[in-house]
Amino acid sequence: MMPVFELLRDDDEARTGNQILSRPGRILLAVGILGLAAAGPIAGSIQPFWVNLLVRMLAFALLALSLDFVFGYAGLLSFGHAAMYGAGGYTAALLVGQVTPNALVVLPASVLVGVVVAALIGWLSVRARGIYFAMLTLAFAQLLYVVVFTDLPATIAGAETVTGGDNGLYGIGSYELAGVGFGDPLAYYFLTLALVALSLAGLIRLANSPFGRVIQGVRENEDRIEFIGYNVQRYKVIAFAISGGFAGLAGGLYVPFQSVANPGLLHWTVSGELVVMVLLGGMGTLWGPMVGAGLVVFLEDRLGGVASWEVILGTLFVLVVIFAPRGIAGALISLRDDPSGAVDSVKEALKNYVREVRD
Amino acid sequence: MIESIVRATLLGVQSGMILALIAAGLTLIFGMLDVINFAHGALYMLGAYFGSVIAAELGSFWLALLIAPLLVGVVGIAIEVFSLRPLYGRNPLYHILLTFGFAIMIQGAVVQIWGGQARQIAQPALLTGTLSLGVVDYPVYRLFVLAISTALIGGVWLAIDRSNLGIIMRASAHDTEMVDALGIDVSKVFTGVFVFGAVLAGLAGVLLGASRSVNPGMGMGIIIEAFVIVVIGGLGSFRGAVFAALLIGLVTSYGALIAPTLTDLALFGLMAIVLMVKPNGLFGATEAA
Amino acid sequence: MSGNTIGGPETDGDAPSGAILSTEGLTKQFGPLTALDDVSIEIPDGGITAIIGPNGAGKTTLFNTFTGKHAPTEGRIEFDGQRIGGVEPYEIVRRGIVRSFQITNFFSSLTALENVRLAAQARYTGFGPADFLTHHASHEEPIADAERVLERVGLDGVATETASSLAYGQRRHLEVAIALASEPRLLLMDEPTAGMSPEETNETVELIEDIASDTTVVIIEHDMDIVMDISDQIAVLNEGKLLTQGTPSEVQSDERVQEAYLRGGGHE
To answer: In the Cβ-directed half-sphere of A141, how many Cα atoms lie within 13 Å?
Structure first.
C-alpha cells in the first residue's frame, strides 16, 4: 500500500535531533496498519458487526489525529473540533444525497469545507490564548450546532429543509468510485483504513516539515517565535485550517457509513470527548491519540450494554490522569525505555499520590 | 405587552441569579485553584437528585434544601482531596480530563441508581400559588428562588470583599507562597473553596429541581451555560460572573419573547463578540504591560 | 550567504554612516503612566551603544518599541531610513532588528541546534508547497547557519543537548545565538551579563565585542565597569526621558547624569 511506503520513505537523517517518530517507530506503525488491513476480513468473517465497529474506531482515530496535530503539536486547545467534523459530515450527506456518490468528489469537498470552517474559526480565535482560545472555538462550534439544529440555512434560503433540523439527514447512500460501490462494510473499511493511513503519513511529514517545526515552536514558546521573525497568527490559522481539513475528512468518512447525519455530530460533548481521547492516548505523539480514540470508541461500544459503562469510563479517565498523565503513549514509551523499572515507577507513583493526598 | 416584559425581566433576573450561584463556584475554583471544573454541572445535578430523595423520604423540602447541598459538599471534599490535590501545579489540561471523567462517572452513577426518568422535588406548601405584583401575577416559589439566590450571592460578595477570608483567598490565588508564609494552610483553603463551590452548585440543584425537573442530562446542559458566563465575565472574576449571569439570564428570557429558537445563538454569539473585543472577558485581568 | 539575507547587505563595523536607528519625540503611555516621554535618540551605525538608567527609567520599554512589541503612543522611529512604529514584531525582525532576552526565553525541550536552526529557518521559509511537504532536515542552509552561529558563541560542543539541560552560562549564550541566527543588523541585548560569574561575564563581554565587529549592538547594562569599558556611545534614560547621550567620558563628566544615576544609588 502506498501510505505504508510513504511512512518508511521518510529517511532524512534527524540531524537536528528532532525527528518525529524514529525509524523503528515508523516501521512499527506500518506493521500496525498492515495488521489492521488483515484484521478487517478476519473480524468480518467472525461477525460482520466487528467491521462496523472498526470503521467507527478508525473514523474517530482520524478525528483525534486531526485534533492532536493542532493541540498536541501547535499547542492550540480546540474545544470546537466537532464543528469541522460535523461540517464535513453534513457536506458528505448533502452531496451523496443530492449530487453524486463519487468519493473522489465528495471526500475532497468534505476536506475543503473542514478547511474553510476551521480557517474562519481560527482566524476569529487565534488572538485569544490558552483557555480563552478554547472557549472561543467552543462558542463558534456551538453557534454552528445551533445553525444546523434549527436549520437556519433553510429559513434563510426559504427552502423546506437543508440540514434536516433536529432529525438530521438519514438514508444516505454509500460511496462509489470508478463504478465500484462501497456498500459492503469490508470495502468501506479498506477505503477508510487507506485514507487514515494516508492522513497519518501526511501529518507526520507535515510535522517534520519546516512549517511543522515552526508550529512546534509556537507551542513551546509563542512569544519568542514571533521575535525570531515568524508571523505567529498566520501560522496558527494555517495549522488550525489543516487540522480542520482532516476533521472534515473524518466526518465525510463517518456519515455515509452510518447513513445518518444528525446535529449531535456538532455538539460540544463530541469536542469534549475528543480532547479526552487525545489526552488519554498521549498528546503530541500523533499515534497515541489514535489509539486513545480507538480504545474509547471500542469501550463505549462494548460497555454500552453494561448499565454502568459511564462509571467505568469515567473512572478510567480519572485513573489515567492521576497515575499516567502522559497517557497510553507515555506509558508505553516509558515501558519500552525501562521495562524493569516499570514496577518501581508504579510504586513510586503510588507513594507520591499518598504523600500528596496527605499533605 | 408590558406584562410580558415585566414577566420576562423577573424570570431573567431569577434565572440569572441561579446561574450566578453555579458560575460563582466555577469562577472561584478557577481563580484560586486554577482548575477548570467540568464536574461542576454534575455536582449541581447531584444536588437535585439528593434533594429529590430527601424530599421524598423525609417529606420536607426544607430539609432537602439544607441537607442535600451538604452531601454534595462531602462529594466535593472527596474529589478535591483524592484527585485534584495530587495534581496541583500540573498542566491545567489534566484538570479538564479529570473533572470530565468525574462528570461522566457521576452521570453514569445517577442513571445506574435512579434510572433515566425525570424525578420531581415537591415545592413546599408555603411557597405554592402566585403573588400579585400589580402588573403581573408571579409564582411565589420563583420569587423565593430569586430572594434566596440574591441573598446568597450578596453574602458571598460581602464575604469576599470585606472579610479576612476574602483577602486570604485572593492572596492565595496570586501567590501561594505568600499565604504559606502567613502561616495559613493553603491546601485547606483550596479544599474549602472547592467544597464551597460544590455546596453552592448543590443548592442551585435543589432550588431549580423543584421548579423544573430532575434528570440525568441537567448537569451537562447547565455546565456549558455556566462556562459561557464565567468566560464572558472573565475567568476567576466573581463580580464578572455575577454580572454575566444576569446578562445571560436577561438575554435568554427576552430572547424567548422574540425568537425562542435563536436564544442559544445569542448566548454563544455574545460570548464570541465579548472575547473578540476583550480577549480576557469583561472583568478579566488584562495582561501586564 | 548574504544573498539570502532579507535585511540587506552587511555593513562594516566602523563605517561612519550616521544613525542606523533614530527616534523623534518618542512617547509611550500605559494608561496614566508615561513610560517614555518625548525621547529623541540616535543609535550610530556600528559599534556598541549602551542604554543606562535607574530601574523604571524606561529602558525595557524603549527596547519594546524598537522591536514592535509596543506601538508608540506618539513620535516616530526610523530604522535604516524607514519608519517602523506600529510594524509587527516578526516584520521588524526581518528588516534586521533583533533582540535577545534577559531571562532565558527559548524552546526548552528542543535541542540547542534546533533552537538556533528555527531562528535561521525564518529567513528561508514561507508558505510555499516545499515548506509544508519537505523534511526540515533536507534544507541545508538553516542547519549550516545554525552550526556556524553555535560555533561562534562556543556552543558547538553541546549542539544536540536539550536546551533545558544546559548550564546557566550556556543558556545565556544560546539566547544570544538564537538572536544572531536571524542575522541582525541591529542587535538589542537586555542585560546580557545579569547573574553571571566574573568568568562568564568576561566571556560574554568578549562575545559582545566580537558581535560588534560586524553588527550594531545596543545593550541595556547595569554594570558600570562593563558599560564604560565596551561602549562607544552611552544614552542615559531617567523617568522616561533621555537625559543625555555621548561618549563614555562625556557621559561620565555630565553633572545631571551623576546626580540622577551614578551617585544616586545606581546598581552594582
So the answer is: 30
Per-residue confidence band for B186, with pLDDT thresholds at 50, 70 and 90: confident
ipTM of the complex model: 0.84
Give Cβ neighbours of residue C100 (< 8 Å, ≥ 6 apart).
Answer: C175, C176, C178, C179, C187, C188, C189, C190, C192
* CA–CA distance, B97 with A277 (Å, rounded to integer): 9
C61 to chain B: closest CA residue: B289
Tally Cβ neighbours within 10 Å of residue C253: 10
Tell me the domains of chain C and their CATH numbers.
Answer: 13-96+184-268 (3.40.50.300), 108-183 (no CATH)
Nearest-angstrom CA–CA distance, A258 and B120 = 37
* C-alpha span between B171 and A228 (Å, rounded): 36
Q: How far is CA A146 from the centre of its chain?
A: 23
B289 interaction partners in chain C (CB closer than 8 Å): 30, 35, 70
Which residues contact residue B87 at a Cβ distance below 8 angstroms, ignoring those fewer than 6 apart? A321, A322, B94, B95, B98
Query: Which segments within B36-147 are labelled E, that is strand?
Result: 130-132, 137-139
Pairing of strands C74-79, C33-39: unpaired
Residue A71: closest CA among A231, A227, A216, A251: A216
The x, y and z cell numbers of residue B18, run together, are 441561579
Would you give the DSSP letter of residue B125? G
Q: Please say whether the beta carbons of C122 and A232 come within 8 A.
A: no
Q: Touching A: which chains, 3+ CB pairs < 8 A?
A: B, C
| Chain C: partners with 3+ C-beta pairs within 8 Å | A, B
| Nearest-CA distance C88 → chain B (Å) | 17
Triad B37, B38, B40: Cα angle to 5°: 75
Nearest CB neighbour to C105, from listed A15, A18, A224: A224
Lowest mean pLDDT among A22-36, A218-232, C74-88: A22-36
**Of the candidates A144, A151, A178, A108, the residue with the CA atom closest to the CA atom of residue A266:** A144
* Buried b / exposed e along C44-70 (16+ C-beta atoms within 10 A): bbbbbbbbbbbeebbbbbbbbbbbbbb
**Rounded CA gap, C86 and C69, in Å?**
9
Alpha carbon distance B117, A301 (integer Å): 23
- pTM for this one? 0.85
* Residue in chain A lying closest to C96 (CA): A229
A133 grid coordinates: 482560545
Q: How far is B117 from chain A (nearest CA, A)?
A: 14
Domains and CATH numbers, chain A: 2-9+22-323 (1.10.3470)
| The pLDDT value given to residue B22 | 95
| pLDDT tens, residue by residue, A285-327 | 889 999 999 999 998 888 877 767 788 888 888 888 888 878 8
User: Do A359 and B272 make contact, defined as CB atoms within 8 angstroms?
Assistant: no
Name the closest residue on chain A to residue B90, using Cα atoms. Answer: A325
Closest residue to C118, CB basis, from A15, A205, A228 = A228
Distance CA C184, CA C98 (A): 6
Burial C98-129 (b: 16+ CB within 10 A, else e): bbbbbebbbbeebbbbbbbbbbbbbbebeeee
* CATH number listed for the domain at residues B2-277: 1.10.3470
Beta strands in C90-153 (DSSP E): 97-100
Query: C-alpha angle C249/C28/C265, rounded to 5°?
Result: 40
The whole-angstrom separation of Cα B86 and Cα B107 is 24
Contacts of C35 in chain B (CB under 8 A): 289
